[in-house]
Amino acid sequence: MIPTKSFIERRRHLASKMRHGVAIIPASPERVRSRDSHYPYRFDSYFYYLTGFSEPGALLVLVAGSTEADLEQILFCRDKDREREIWDGFRHGPDAAREVFGFDEAYSISQLDEILPKLLADQPAVYCSLGQDKDWDTRLIGWVDRVREQARSGAVTPAAIHDIRLLLDEMRLIKSEEELQVMRRAAEISTGAHCRAMQTARAGLHEYEVEAELLHEFRRHGAQAPAYNPIVAGGANACVLHYIENNSELNSGDLLLIDAGCELDGYAADITRTFPVNGKFSPVQKDIYQLVLAAQGAAISVVRPGTLWNAPHDAALQVLVQGFIDLGLCHGSVDGVIQSEDYKRFYMHRTGHWLGLDVHDVGGYKVDGHWRPLQTGMTLTVEPGFYLRPADNVPEHFWNIGVRIEDDVAVTDTGCDVLTAAAPKTVAQIEQLMQQ
Ligand code: GLY
Ligand code: MN
Ligand code: MN
């Protein structure tokens, strides 16, 4: 668990980057699934990153003066409510929340419209994330208008609205040791789930039966949820990049592609493994698989501080495209095939993304128009793939083979740490585990 003092430190750090102004960061709303049933609540990643507070109906305000010492950290949250707590469970209420989560002040969320205009008066700037939620946008504009209405009494209206995500995304891009510890545990639980899937899968089962093993493994270790909808894709389904129906029967002789990771205390793991349903790769499957594995190895080998974001993708592409040419699927030189983008018939996504509180985590991939150099503490996925759909110019023995191999990687001072290395991925490791 990340301690309260770290959340306070993050708020101070954000305020120091804002200088003078008011930051407003709301919690996510609860969302209806069907009539009066809600989806399981998931906090907003920005709000949680700054508060550690996971109740809905809350809002964070930071009032930052012109010096670092001049900072008010204010939480608005739901009141204690004996009746509602009988139905829905514990809520902190402002007094306990202030103590537990380290705020200077805490108020009832019902006082927002009364207090916010006072906090905004005479402040030079508002920092918020306009466009994220239309209801909050409308309320914010209302509060600013309330200040403007007081102009004749001398109140000064904030003159600027800044996008707070520009500051927060940079902070979230570099993970602290505490965050990495949570991510390592999320990775550990998720690699265990992939091992269990390999040990369970066999012809005649349905994809959802294997999905159930993954979900059971996540939950029994305390992960709150899958970090995204698991993909359990046998045979041709592996060539559908976002396949989530998971309702087909598994056939001997097919590959099974599983892209699944848990979310633990807000942090995502994101792992893909591909293996034969019957435990033994056919010669063609083995060729395809080992090409993707080599591409992934090439990509991971360049992950270190200073490497540009695009370098792992370029490294993977060189290996894959040479393989496509060797297999007779593309023609000409590697550079020519990359230039013409002919390879996109078989590899149409990129080789990774930032990973953190969001599975596709925040943070720009370019800075001032150039690919961003990797830094210690950044976390990313490395996930090349190769997808062979039936097509006139693809020999039939390749049809419906889809392979992706995805690991989670943390950049270290000297290179990188593969957080998900415990999930088997060589042909020998996979076949051995499946035979046990
Ligand atoms: N599971 C989503 C992704 O691999 O990006
Ligand atoms: Mn991914
Ligand atoms: Mn994935």
Could you say which structural class the secondary elements and strand pairing correspond to?
Answer: alpha+beta
* Radius of gyration over all CA atoms, rounded: 25 Å
Q: Roughly what percent helix?
A: 25-40%
CATH architecture name of the largest domain: Alpha-Beta Complex
The shape, in one word, is: elongated
* Count of discrete domains: 2
pLDDT averaged over residues:
97
**How far is the first residue's CA from the last residue's CA?**
36 Å
For the largest beta-sheet, the strand count, sense and barrel status come to: 6 strands, mixed
Could you give the count of β-strands?
A: 21
Helix tally?
Answer: 13
Strand content: 15-25%
Q: What oligomeric arrangement do these chains adopt? A: single chain
If strands are numbered along the chain, what order do they take across the biggest sheet? 6-5-4-1-7-8
What's the CATH first level of the largest domain? Alpha Beta
State the low-pLDDT regions, or none.
none
Unique bound compounds: glycine, manganese (II) ion
Give the name of the CATH superfamily of the largest domain: Creatinase/methionine aminopeptidase superfamily
Predict the CATH topology of the largest domain: Creatine Amidinohydrolase
Q: What features would you describe in this structure?
A:
The protein has 436 residues and is of the alpha+beta class. The chain is 37% helix and 19% strand. The protein has a six-stranded mixed β-sheet, sandwiched between helices. A three-stranded antiparallel β-sheet has the order 9-12-13. A three-stranded antiparallel β-sheet has the order 10-11-14. The longest helix has 24 residues, at 177-200. The protein is elongated, with a radius of gyration of 25 Å. It binds glycine and manganese (II) ion (2 copies).
